[in-house]
Amino acid sequence: MSSSDHSPSTQAETRSPPTPDSPPVTRLALFAYALAAAWVGVDQVSKAWVLGGLRLPERGSVAVVPGLFNLTMVWNRGVSYGLMHGGGEVGRWGLSLFSAAVAIGIAWWARRVTRPLPAVALGLVMGGAVGNLIDRVRLGAVVDFLDFSGAHFPWVFNVADSGISIGVAVLLLDSLLAPRPATA
What we know:
There is one protein chain. This protein has helices at residues 8-14, 27-53, 56-59, 88-110, 116-139, 159-177; strands at 61-65, 69-76, 142-147, 156-157. The N and C termini lie far apart (61 Å). It has one domain. A 4-stranded antiparallel β-sheet has the order 1-2-3-4. The chain contains 6 helices and 4 strands; from the N terminus they run H-H-H-E-E-H-H-E-E-H. The chain is α+β, with helices and mostly antiparallel strands and 184 residues long. Helix 4 packs antiparallel against helix 5 and helix 5 packs antiparallel against helix 6 (159-177). It is globular. Strand 1 (61-65) and strand 2 form a beta hairpin.
């Protein structure tokens, strides 16, 4: 084998050129992926603290701001805010597959994002979907514990749910604020 076989031009020729099906990932997409990873981290650390440090499953509920905000243990077998609960193992794995599909679909969508608001929104939704997916696969249910029932908010939720909700709201905001193409 000659030394010319390893030249940069020979190596470059053996690489596949980019195709329209695999466009480059934008810098904002990388930001969305990093935000998703950070959101998953915060979500999982908060749940580990609630389960292990605070031992909330044994305590049930802890008043943080009496009459307004509690940490209340809820094992959520449904989707966000306990909706569509039930279904046993079939429901658990069905919702797990759905969460994985959502995260993959959003990651695919995010790869070409060019505006900051959608990047933030997609990162939050992706992180929320993955955070709850981890719980469902690892624990059989999602750990919910943020309880604002004193403020007349009837659902107990978690950091992942917050990311999903905030992300959807930011996507809606972006749809209102995004520049529109000029019409002829």
